Amino acid sequence: MSNKKVIYLAVTKSNKHHFKGILSQKNQIQVHVFDYGRELLKEVLLTKEKIGFVIVDFDIQCCDALLTTIVIKYFIPELFVIGFCSNGNKKIINDFLSGGGDDFIYENIFLPTRCSIVNKHILENFSFLKEGECQTEKDGFRRDIKTGKLSELTSSDVAFLILNSAGFSRKEIAHLLCKSEASVKKYISKMCIYFGVKYREDLLSVSISYGVVKLLMK
Questions:
Q1: What is the pTM of this model?
Q2: Which of 57, 79, 152, 188 qualifies as a FRET site for 110, CA 20 to 30 Å off?
Q3: What angle do CA 29, 163, 122 make, to 5 degrees?
Q4: What are phi and psi of 171, to 5 degrees?
Q5: CB 110 within 8 A of CB 22
C-alpha cells in the first residue's frame, strides 16, 4: 500500500504555476488536480480513497471556494480544507474560515525563497496559518441551521439544498445522495412548496437567506 499523501487540488489555470513544487513531489504526494469546484466535489464525495487534505483556489469557477468548502464540510466534516488566496483579501479569508475552512495560504508564500518551506509543511503537517495573519471568529454562518424554519427539515432535505446550491444537476444529486431521480424530483417539489417559491433555481437564494450556504463576495 502506498504511503503517499493524497491531495485534491482545485485551482485555476492561471494560478496552477504556484503549485509546481507540490506537483513535482511525485514520490511523496499524489495530487489530483481539478479546474472547477464541482469537478473536485464529485470526486471527493464519491471516492473511496483516503484523502489527506484539499486545497481550493479562491478564484475557481463552477462552485466557488467557499461553497465548495461548505459542501465538503457538510458531508465529510473531518476532511482538512485549505484555501489559496491570491490577493490577501481579509474579508474573503474570514468568510472562508467562518464557512468551515481550516486554513489558508497567500500567493506570496510561494515566492522562490519560500517554496521549500511550503513543500516541507505540506509533506510534514500542512499547517500554514500564522498567528496574527487573519483575525476571525469561526462561529460559522450556519449556526441557525437547526432553529426556526430550518429545524423542520430533515438532514436529507438540507443535503439536497446544499448540493442544489452547488449547481449539480438532478441526476448528479441523485447519484451523490444515492437516491433515485424520482426522489430528487420530490425533494425539489417539497422544498419549493415549503419555502414558497416556484422554481428550483429560486432555492439558491432561499438557501443563502436562511444560512444554509454562502457565496464569496469579492
A1: 0.80
A2: 79
A3: 20
A4: -65, -40
A5: no
In a domain, 132, yes or no: no
Give me the long-range contacts of 102-106 (CB less than 8 A, separation at least 24): 103/127, 103/128, 103/129, 104/128, 104/129, 104/134, 105/55, 106/133
29-34 and 103-106 beta bridge pairing = unpaired
Interatomic CA distance for residues 186 and 124, integer angstroms? 47
Residues 20 and 115 in one domain: yes
Range of the domain at 57: 5-124
- Flag whether 79 is in a domain: yes
Q: Is residue 133 part of a domain?
A: no
In a domain, 136, yes or no: no
Do 114 and 19 fall within a single domain? yes
Do 36 and 68 fall into the same domain? yes
C-alpha pair distances (Å), 161 with each of 122, 153, 154, 195, 207 = 33, 10, 11, 11, 7
- d(Cα 179, Cα 217) in Å, to the nearest integer? 33
